[in-house]
Specification:
The protein has 430 residues and is an alpha/beta fold. Helices cover 43% and strands 12% of the residues. The chain has 2 domains: 226 residues, Rossmann fold (3-Layer(aba) Sandwich); 157 residues, Glycogen Phosphorylase B (Rossmann fold), CATH 3.40.50. It has a 7-stranded parallel beta sheet, sandwiched between helices. Helix 3 packs parallel to helix 4 and helix 10 crosses helix 14.
Amino acid sequence: MQQPGAAQPRITTLVRDRAAAALAAQEVASPLPRRVLYATSARIGGPGLDLVAHKTLLAPLRHGFLGRAIGYGNRTGGEIPDRFVRSLRWSPVRLLSGLSRPFYYGAKKHYADWIAARELRRGRYDFFHGWSGDALRALCVARARGIPSMLEIPTWHVAHGFGKWTEHAPPSRLLDHCLPARWRDRLLVTQRRIEEEYALTDLILARSTRARETFLAEGIAPEKVFYIGEAADTARFQPPREPPADGVFRAIFVGALIRRKGVHLLLDAWHRAQLPPGAELLLVGFPHEEIRPDLARHRVGEKGSTVRVVGPAARVEDYFRQATVHIFPSLLEGCAKSTCEAAACGLPQITTRESGDVVVDGINGFTVPPNDAAALQAAIERMAQLPAARLGEMRAAARRRAVEEFSWEKFHARTLQAYRRAGELHRRRG
């Protein structure tokens, strides 16, 4: 028997589903922009977010609507021709490179934003595509000119975890002390500034479902937050022809060795876990100062240690192919690129939801709660005890998910859909 009021949630869901379907139909019919301005305070081409900028720009370039890209250099090897890129590599902001990182990076963001705003005023653009923290002036110009816009978000809503993971160290470099504090502090990118960007843009691009949830929790309309995801080069990152023949249970972590990515939790869980003889953990990435006490506490690098710091690697796929499992217990992330790359290499993973959407629990790996070393330890032990046939199934599922959902082709399709949705939302806003 139906309980009183039970129909209301179903009615609400039905209304939302119909609204979403109507919006999707409008997106299909919506035209792509004719000339887009893209701006970032990163470089275009290289690792990390630089690679995201590179791959994102291929979508408008190949469909004929890339007008100009602004960034701190073009390292795409000619894939994005120089005529499309306004490089800020030798800009005056380099004179401030002696500042501590928060101030210098803030200066780069402000300068890129200023250049983008000026370009929007001068050029014949009908769309602006920027990055969170880099785009307030440009978004103001876009709004004033009636130009649709969308904003890339590297992690979560600025109100979620922002203070904990972006605490600014006191001035520590010589140039910090040469500048008056009122000038120096104006270079910092504040939470208020970023929230103003959210309000101005037509569409926010979230890199994972967990990231999207943080925007919905802050009251931003669901249709304004678009899941863009991440991707990997599935031609470069491929499984080995055969699993490693040495029979060693080998775990790998790929990324910056910092606490936000849960490296300290991984070290704790690894050293408590009951593992088969010869098991080893490889840390592939640069060890930042904050993690060195944890490495020392666990005697990493000493004789007899089962943990080895590899450092940054140019061919990280070679390490993925040697491993049994990729472990990435991040506490706050957009979507970790290494999880896409590991999946493309057919590698089962242990991650948190905060690391992204690549792992489906029990299918191509295990998910654990964030900041829970005991759960992480249990998942590592469980993975180490899986029979070869079950590991083989997970490897196949990992590769399949990477190809079907996290290839650059899928990413480009989502990017084009995002341009259409931003344009449609802009028209609906009037």
